[in-house]
TrEMBL record:
Pfam families in the record: DUF2063
Gene3D superfamilies: DUF2063
Domain Putative DNA-binding, first and last residues per copy: 9-102
Protein name: Putative DNA-binding domain-containing protein
InterPro entries assigned to the protein according to its UniProt record, in alphabetical order: DUF2063, DUF2063_N_sf
Amino acid sequence: MTREELASLQADFVASLDESSAPAILPQGWFDATSADDLQRFSRYRSALWQHQERSLALTYPVIKALVGDEFFRTLAHAYGQRYPSRQADLKTFGAQLAAFLNDYLAVHAYPYFADVAALEWSVQCAAFAADAVALSAGELAALSSSQLDAQRLTLHPGCSLLHSDWPCAALWTAHVTLDQAFPDLQAKHRTTLVYRLGWVVKVRELNPCEAAGLICLSRGASLSEALLAAQARFAEANRPSQLVDSAALVTRWLNDALLVTVSV
């Protein structure tokens, strides 16, 4: 058998797996088309593949599953698998493109916030498996002189991510995951959500515009002073310019949440 013939056989096999018809259509060259046993074996294999795809997505996207319901989620998982078949042995990476998929999926066009919720859930997945890093402590910060503090570049912990959306994704996620919060009002308004890992627990919270401005600055490798100036500038936009943002409260929260990591030069 030539490489071209093998490639053709493999392509036919994959096409038959993706085929949504019932019963399954046996791929040419692999099985005896008249054999009921071959048809049964292939049907079981195809069904198992779809079930693995659905279960993998359900583990990563429990909120999306809750929003669309079990039956629709099964259809969604199959359609997603056809568009983005798994290319790695590790199934936890299977759902990496679900947010992009939902953004173009006509069946959920009436629910534009689904894609952003999926993006948040993927960030939660990434935070859970992100590389560990030693966060800056209050003691280490206090030991820095003024000149050292201005020179020290900081960034966010590898488990942190900032997401921008016009929908209350953090509140939607919290309402479904913790079950102790009412379903939020779906009013369109720009929001920034922080996803981070504290110890072994992934947390999600919506940021006020001042804190968001500071953390965005830090995500780009700024100094703490630059981040606080960015927070102050955003605070001044929404308040009287003479008022000051509570810098101590911001820094304390960032340290307590283990968000800051020093950048080595």
